[in-house]
Amino acid sequence: MLGPLSSQATSRALQDASMYGKYEQWMARYGRVYTDINEREKRFNIFKENVAFIESSNKDAYKLYKLSVNQFADLTNEEFKASRNGFMGHECSAKTTCFKYENVTAPPTVDWRKKGAVTPIKDQGQCDVPANREDALMKAVANQPISVAIDASGSDFQFYSSGVFTGTCGTSLDHGVIAVGYGVSDDGTKYWLVKNSLVFKSFSLVFL
């Protein structure tokens, strides 16, 4: 007869086998080929930890967003940050220019996708949109899509899939996105609608 320890070992072996099957399916989907068996096993362990993190996060009923296994599932968060977040800030001119949308009244909601004007954008940077002023950004986005920088270093952002992102937002601006709208969700949560083409190649509903 198998004792408790043997049963636990068998259960873990079955779980690992099931996870390895998911890993191989993921490798096939994203065309992953590793240089040797050691690298393959290393990436499997990272994949397994990331899947556990994603599943744990998605069980949180209080989160308004979901994570999913994507092309970055075999990367640690440090590797993800190093490989994807390449935003380089720029210095503003010493001359302070007037904010041209200062006297604009921003509507309650904006979605430039519906107007077919998402791709052509003007890089406003931090010079033309007053820093730390949400009302200024709303006025600017009401008139055109705006390039902005965000802190995309967290694991939640790495695996973000859908919903209003209410995860932790830092202040180390390391990733460029395009604000294409804003609004309020059914439960009253304010959000920015962001095109995050460098990471997900789709539109993301993000709360900043």
UniProtKB/TrEMBL annotation:
Pfam family, one: Inhibitor_I29
Record-annotated Cathepsin propeptide inhibitor domain positions: 23-80
Domain Peptidase C1A papain C-terminal per the UniProt entry, residue ranges: 33-207
Gene Ontology terms, MF aspect: cysteine-type peptidase activity
Membrane found in the keyword field: no
Biological process, per Gene Ontology: proteolysis
Protein's UniProt name: Cathepsin propeptide inhibitor domain-containing protein
Organism: Malus domestica
